[in-house]
Design a protein that fits this description.
Blueprint (H helix, E strand, L loop, with lengths): L14 H19 L4 H8 L3 H14 L2 E5 L14 E5 L5 E7 L3 E7 L5 E8 L5 H19 L6 E8 L2 E2 L6 E3 L11 H9 L3 E5 H12 L8 E6 L3 E7 L2 E3 L27 H6 L1 H13 L4 H7 L6 H9 L3 H25 L3 E5 L3 H4 L3 H11 L5 E4 L6 H22 L7
Parallel strand pairs: 3-6, 6-9, 10-13, 13-14
Antiparallel strand pairs: 1-2, 3-4, 4-5, 7-8, 10-11, 11-12
Length: 417
C-alpha cells in the first residue's frame, strides 16, 4: 500500500505529525463505524468539519476509503439530496491464508473485511520441502486467479503448519507430520518462492483465532481449541489474545503425561496424542483383531488398515471390541481435558481436526465427566469452521498484520473488529 502519511522525521506536535494522527483517527472511525456520512465522521471523531473534509479527500485519493450514494434502503427516507456515505475500501488489499494439512492444502483469499473471494483445495503433495513449497505457490496463484484480482493486490500470505513454529523467525522447530520441515526457515523460503510478505504460525494457534473470529468461540475471551488428528495440539486464547508461549510451543498437549498404564507411543508423537489420536484407534483395533475380537472392525475397514472410521462403524453395529476401544480413548481424552481445564479454566473447549466430527456424539459423556472432575467445567463444542479453521485464522492474522502496518504508518492504532 502506498500511504501519503507525511514526513516520518517530524517532531511530535508538528503539523505533519498532527495531520498523521488526524488521518489515522478518521480512518479508524470510518473503518469501525462506517458506512457513514461526513457529518457523522465529524460527530464521531470530534474533529472539525474542515479537518475531516481535508482528511477524507486524502483518503479517497489514496484509495483507502470510498464514497457512494446512500442506497436508499433505509426507511423512511429523509427529504432532500441523498446522503453520500464513506466506508473503508476493503478491496484495497488482499490476504491469503494457507493450511498445510497432512492430507490437504487449503488456501482462502479474502479482502480486508474477511469476505472470502476464493477457495482452493489440493491434496498435500510429496512432503519434501521443495515439492511442498511449489504446491503452496500453486494454490496461492490459483486463489488469485479464481478471485479475479491482480497478484500485486496481495498484501500478505499467512501459512499454518503442524508442529512448533518459532514466532521470531517463522522457522519450523518441530513437526512430526512433516519431518523434512524440521529446522527449515519456512517463512523465508516461502517469501522467496512467492515473492510476497509471508507469516508462518502453528496450525492450532491459527485455528483458535479462526474460531474466535468467525466460529464457535465468537465473543468469548478464554478458549482452547484442541486439534485432534494423528497428532493432538492445542491453541490457547487468553483474554482475547492467542497465547504462543516463550518460544511458540504453547499448547503441545500431545506430550501430556498419562497416569496408569501407558500405551505404546506412536513414533515421533507424545504419550497423550498416542493414546487418543488416530493412531490409537488403529493400534487398539489391530490388537483386538489379533486377539480374534474385532471381526466387525475388520469388516468395517473394508480391506484397509482399521482406523477411527472402522472402529466407530463397528461400534454402531454393536461390536463389543469397538465399544471397549472407544471407552478407553474417551476416558483418556477426558483425563487430558481435565488437566487442560484445571490449569486454564477456559469458557469453552473447541474440538477440531479430523477426529472432531466422529467424536461429536460423545460430547455429553465428556461434559458429564468433566463436570465430575473439575470445579468449573467449560462448554464443549465441535468446531464450527470444520477443516477451514486454520485457514480462517490465517486470514484473521493477515488482516491484523495489514491493518497494524497501515495504522502505524498513519500514526494510530489498528481498528480491526
Amino acid at each position: 500500500m502506498v500511504i501519503h502519511s507525511g514526513d516520518s522525521r517530524a517532531q511530535a506536535g508538528s503539523p505533519s505529525v498532527l495531520r498523521r494522527l488526524n488521518v489515522a483517527h478518521v480512518l479508524r472511525t470510518i473503518r469501525s463505524e462506517g458506512p457513514m456520512s461526513r457529518g457523522a465522521v465529524v460527530t464521531a471523531s470530534g474533529l472539525s468539519k474542515p479537518t475531516v473534509n481535508e482528511v477524507v479527500e486524502g483518503l479517497l485519493a489514496d484509495g483507502l476509503i470510498t464514497e457512494s450514494l446512500d442506497d436508499g434502503e433505509q426507511s423512511p427516507r429523509r427529504p432532500g439530496p441523498k446522503a453520500r456515505l464513506l466506508q473503508f475500501n476493503a478491496r484495497r488489499g488482499m490476504v491469503v491464508g494457507v493450511d498445510i494439512g497432512a492430507a490437504k492444502l487449503l488456501a482462502l483469499l479474502s479482502d480486508l473485511d474477511g469476505n472470502i473471494l476464493a477457495t482452493v483445495r489440493h491434496p498435500t503433495p510429496d512432503k519434501a520441502v521443495k515439492k511442498l513449497l511449489e504446491a503452496i505457490g500453486e494454490v496461492v496463484d490459483e486463489a488469485v486467479a479464481q478471485a479475479g484480482v491482480g497478484r500485486d493486490s496481495l498484501e500478505v500470505v499467512v501459512v499454518g503448519t503442524p508442529g512448533v513454529v518459532d514466532p521470531s523467525t517463522g522457522g519450523v522447530v518441530f513437526t512430526p507430520q512433516f519431518p523434512d520441515l524440521h529446522g527449515q526457515p519456512l517463512r523465508d523460503l516461502l517469501s522467496q518462492t512467492l515473492g510476497f510478505s509471508v507469516l508462518v504460525q502453528s496450525e492450532a494457534h491459527l485455528a483458535v483465532a479462526g474460531e474466535h473470529w468467525r466460529g464457535a468461540a465468537a465473543a468469548l475471551r478464554n478458549v482452547v481449541y484442541v486439534q485432534m488428528g494423528v497428532g493432538v495440539g492445542m491453541g490457547i486464547l487468553i483474554n482475547g489474545e492467542v497465547y504462543h508461549g516463550a518460544a511458540g510451543a504453547s499448547g503441545e498437549v500431545g506430550y501430556l503425561p498419562l497416569g496408569g498404564e501407558v500405551p505404546a507411543r506412536v513414533e515421533g508423537y507424545g504419550p497423550f496424542e498416542s493414546a487418543v489420536g488416530a493412531g490409537a484407534f488403529a493400534r487398539l483395533a489391530s490388537s483386538a483383531i489379533e486377539r480374534g475380537k474385532g471381526e466387525a472392525i475388520l469388516a468395517a475397514a473394508v480391506g484397509a488398515e482399521p482406523g477411527p472410521e472402522a472402529v466407530l462403524g463397528a461400534l454402531e453395529a454393536g461390536d463389543r471390541a469397538a465399544r471397549a476401544i472407544v471407552n478407553r480413548i474417551l476416558d483418556t481424552l477426558c483425563q487430558g481435558l481435565t488437566s487442560i481445564t484445571a490449569v486454564l479454566n477456559p469458557e469453552m473447549v473447541v474440538l477440531g481436526g479430523g477426529l472432531a466430527r466422529p467424536l461429536a456424539a460423545f460430547l455429553p459423556r465428556l461434559e458429564q465427566a468433566l463436570a465430575a472432575t473439575v470445579p468449573v467445567p467449560p462448554r464443549l463444542q465441535i468446531t464450527a469452521l470444520g477443516d477451514r479453521a486454520v485457514a480462517m485464522g490465517a486470514l484473521r492474522l493477515g488482516i491484523e498484520h495489514v491493518e497494524t502496518r497501515l495504522f502505524e504508518m498513519l500514526g494510530g492504532p489498528s481498528a480491526i473488529s
